[in-house]
Amino acid sequence: MSNSATAVELPKELEKHLESYVAAFNSGDAEGVNAHYTEAGIIVWEKGNPVSGADRRAAVTEFLATMRPHIETEVREAYVTGDTALLVVDWTMEINTASGEGREHLRGVGLDVLRKQADGSWLYAVDDPFGEEPRD
């Protein structure tokens, strides 16, 4: 049996999805960020605590309002099979500190699973920003 599966260059539709997500995230647009997820899509913004549905929408809204994040992303790897994609994404983020008196720098490697929709767009099914350890 031969194995011809390889990492692929990021398809334009996925690139557009990521650019749109980052723009909504950085502008604090919670509705825009949440529009990038399937209805059942989950976020794992806290290790071991997947959140979906109304809880996900509320968590996104609260995080954007209180932390005022600015994120930058770079896709390390992309794998696509049919209507499913896996992205490995290096990211850095600046957020407000807990005291609100400064900014904190975070970085990580996200593992994101996306599903292709009937209209050809892609939406997050799983958004796990701490899926791998960052490279030094």
UniProtKB/TrEMBL annotation:
Source taxon at top rank: Bacteria
Occurrences of domain SnoaL-like (ranges): 19-122
InterPro entries, alphabetized: NTF2-like_dom_sf, SnoaL-like, Steroid_delta5-4_isomerase
A Pfam family the protein falls into: SnoaL_2
Gene3D superfamilies reported in the protein's UniProt record: 3.10.450.50
NCBIfam families registered for this protein in UniProt: SgcJ/EcaC family oxidoreductase
Name the UniProt record assigns to this protein: SgcJ/EcaC family oxidoreductase
Annotated source species: Streptomyces sp. 900105245
